[in-house]
Amino acid sequence: xxxxxxxxxxxxxxxxxxxxxxxxxxxxxxxxxxxxxxxxxxxxxxxxxxxxxxxxxxxxxxxxxxxxxxxxxxxxxxxxxxxxxxxxxxxxxxxxxxxxxxxxxxxxxxxxxxxxxxxxxxxxxxxxxxxxxxxxxxxxxxxxxxxxxxxxxxxxxxxxxxxxxxxxxxxxxxxxxxxxxxxxxxxxxxxxxxxxxxxxxxxxxxxxxxxxxxxxxxxxxxxxxxxxxxxxxxxxxxxxxxxxxxxxxxxxxxxxxxxxxxxxxxxxxxxxxxxxxxxxxxxxxxxxxxxxxxxxxxxxxxxxxxxxxxxxxxxxxxxxxxxxxxxxxxxxxxxxxxxxxxxxxxxxxxxxxxxxxxxxxxxxxxxxxxxxxxxxxxxxxxxxxxxxxxxxxxxxx
Length: 397
Prior knowledge:
Blueprint: E1 4-8, H1 28-41, E2 45-48, H2 55-61, E3 70-75, H3 82-96, E4 100-104, H4 109-113, H5 121-139, E5 146-147, E6 152-153, E7 177-179, H6 184-193, E8 196-200, H7 204-220, E9 226-236, H8 239-250, H9 255-265, H10 280-290, E10 301-303, E11 306-307, E12 325-329, H11 330-342, E13 345-351, H12 355-366, H13 387-391
Parallel strand pairs: 1-2, 1-13, 2-3, 3-4, 4-7, 7-8, 8-9, 9-12, 9-13
Antiparallel strand pairs: 5-6, 10-11, 11-12
Helix pairs in contact: 1-12, 3-5, 5-6, 6-7, 7-11
């Protein structure tokens, strides 16, 4: 089974953007450069995560600067009406030749309420199911209308006037939907709706166990899903170099930063002093922190090459989550990706910072060691050039 590798395409960027001192001003021109880089290097797609910019607008603006790169656009159901989003998607696909993917983000009660969407936890998933069903129906050209509990759309008439007609679908099976959901209701929603089920990273066996359960639920209703995960990545020519770089990132923070990260992850009714982890690695790190000692980078390795050190997406000291990284040589990381693959993972959404430099490292060092399912022949980098010389090449827009 081959895998798909996607790259992160969202602000902010910088060498260590989780700290103000390591965060760059990431304007449109910089995002454009990241997109061009990911496209030219041969990544399958890029995740357009939620940020200060509207994701679909940014993705659409990058169409003319890219040729093959798919855009995995984070979208909350209800931000716009489903029929309106369907026409946006038809337009995007017509101009990009079918390069749109949606990352279905169901958010939380407070976040959605700020967008004018007010549903309880379970209602939120029921609403999302109707929303995306109505979206796909309209995207695929069904003009018969939609009548649901939450969504009502009148039939759409077309006259002889060109202004009354839509361009029609480019992706004949609909826009692929990626997304997540861990609660019982979230899993039900996922298996009924999604094409690719996503989860934050964990160790390969534990992630595989989660995906196996979701796969079983999907099989009950006759569906088969693909599975993907989100990982940070530090890849170097040698394992020693990779861990040296990981240590340099850890050296940017202090003891209090790590303690505050633990406090944000604590279960209800637990304190920094009272919490006990069943994982001996985690418990050892907690003991060091309580004694005023910041563990070394290698101490946060919870599985071979799986690291819970600091990142833009969190310092996952208690449990692996959005900030968890793969650290090692290209051979180490290729081995770990193949292990994840053996547990059913076929898509990896990666990021390393700065985004352009680390994208080059991944393409140069890791791509040749993996069987990739990107749908096109990968470009060949100049093997006589060093990474540093590649990074110094001018990108022409």
